[in-house]
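Box 3.1. Reading complex inputs
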Amino acid sequence: MSATSTILGPGLDDATKSEASLRRFLHGLPGVDQVGADARAAGLGTRSIKTTAKEFALDLAIRMVDLTTLEGADTPGKVRALASKAMRPDPADPDCPAVAAVCVYPDMVATVKETLGGSGVHIAAVATAFPSGRAALDIKLADTADAVEAGADEIDMVIDRGAFLSGRYQQVYDEIVAVKAACARADGESAHLKVIFETGELQTYDNVRRASWLAMMAGSDFIKTSTGKVQPAATLPVTMIMLEAVRDFREQTGRMIGVKPAGGIRTSKDAIKYLVMVNEVAGADWLDPDWFRFGASTLLNDLLMQRTKMKTGRYSGPDYFTLD
Amino acid sequence: MTSKFEYAPAPESRSIVDIKPSYGLFINGEFVDGHGKSFKTISPSTEEVLAEVAEADEADVDAAVKAARKAYDKVWSKLPGRERAKYLYRIARIIQERSRELAVLESIDNGKPIKESRDVDVPIVAAHFFYYAGWADKLEYAGRGNHPQPLGVAGQIIPWNFPLLMLAWKIAPALACGNTVVLKPAETTPLTALLFAEICQQADLPPGVVNIVTGAGGTGQALVGHPGIDKVAFTGSTEVGKAIARTVAGTDKKVTLELGGKAANIVFDDAPLDQAVEGIVTGIFFNQGHVCCAGSRLLVQESVADELLTKLKRRMSTLRIGDPLDKNTDIGAINSAEQLARIRELSEIGEAEGAGRWSPECELPSHGFWFPPTLFTDVTQAHRIAREEIFGPVLSVLTFRTPSEAVEKANNTPYGLSAGVWTEKGSLILSMANRLRAGVVWANTFNKFDPTSPFGGFKESGYGREGGRHGLEAYLK
């Protein structure tokens, strides 16, 4: 029934023809052995990234940050401050790169846009009844369209985990297709769509792999682990399963999809582990803010502190870096 | 804007180890000069000479056996189990305290990557001593009757692939059961055994309980043939194992042999493929493939063979070969020039017999002994590379159509040390485990070791078990 494009190739277009074929396809994906996946992720975490490699990784990680505030207490003042920081993360060092995007609720998009102007930093908005996704489809679509109209470059949607866990894959698929359509802008372009799985609720790696393929086939531009509101949020093994999915998807279709772990990544050390994983699992092509992002807030200051340490040889205290 | 993420060198510091210019033999709790010649031990990654080591002759071996006998009669066999346990616990703790030193020295002398000596070898060594320390005062519950007795003096010969780990597998159960030992480390990797001798001194182990005689084949023969030993424990090649069995035939020496292997790693079409790829890599490239239980034959179901090989090749391309002390090195140096020649010879035979050879692009260091990770496709049971143990980073890929064919091919070898089964189907794992003639069958993993788990072979892979409760049998009567 669904409005599938035919760019996926014969095998995958057939897979999305009906509820039954979608289920057959997703359940036919190779399983994930949890013990083995955890061991591989931990093994990649033991890579030792020093000196020039560390400098490279820190700068890249800063450029990949989606600087995020998603609080009920967000105010225009708060998001303006965050947007200023996004453009100039380290006021003391003009060479410090800007982050990739600022991520806020839809009602704050216009405010962020005023501050960011033409800086090149993107505006990402969470939509579709974030974080639970518990709303009627037309409300989710209105939420999305509202954010796009206000100037969001990127939409971070949540999937209906209830539908996914009860096996209604077609419903999840159709929702993603519909939200993707709602991302269209008047100028013919379309906001980039990131699809959040809330892997802490999906729980198994098999589910993460199935959700990844489901979202990619439905037309998402990015797949994202978590809202940050549920524990556990992003983990290394979950991100690895998603990186394997985008790697295999490109092999099959030629289309490249981005990956965004979000929530719980707080230190440079953690961020570097993720970059090593991107490099060795998906490949160097994904080592770019267009294809890999960190959904984070406190991470940025730790990256800046480590960066300053690399440049000056000295550690400085948190007082030398701006509060978000 | 994007450039490549090149990992800068991250070498572990060598300064923690203190390699002496020359080493004697460890007999009766002291380092003594040998009567024989000496030999050099080198670092296989640089060919740098590390130290001169004494080569024990028959008189030296005799002195070591006598010291072990005296320690057995006067001290060790008379100590209650709980007292023996205290020494073993102490040794285990010192190993943990000096783990970095042991790991660095092992990587220098053996050529294995520091991440393996640090994260695998040394932790399992300590775990082995802890585990058998726990048995020392509980031997009457080991299923060997109410009054199990030690055998006496054990002569132990270990290989170069896991110098310290094989030492632990031999010494820990022997001592726990009340035996004393004379151990000969391999000619190319004697240094960690000599550091272990220091640890014995540090632990105040009574003199003569552990004796270490360094040397080559001649020293080993003198030890095996010595009338004063009650037990021979050997890990190494099948050829030498057979010679040992001939030597001890007709004597009342007990023998355990842990010999070669040509293990099948069997991947079914419903396997978790990404993890299977990791298991294949661990199975054959761990420790440069210098593993007797290495998964050197990949048996893959034809329906997923292409997909699996694509994934495997991509994964092999990310393996990092080089300085064993670099923390990012995945594959270190081949242990000796002799072993490298053997790997090269068999690989050339594989090519000559028509198998498809493939290695990822990788730069090998100019000094030392190196061999790139290699796989051979279109291998059949008739190829020599599918039958003979290569003992290097070389994988032979065969295919099968049904579980029965997989079992037939897997068992069609003179060896039977280990096997791996990859499938999401539990019942298939159990039926395969029943039908595979191998001492260890790993399910959805490979090369996993634990002191509580017995290890040993079928057929020409040897007899006797090491590890676990079963491992006690080799040192009790």
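In summary: Residues 114-135 of chain B form the longest helix (22 residues).
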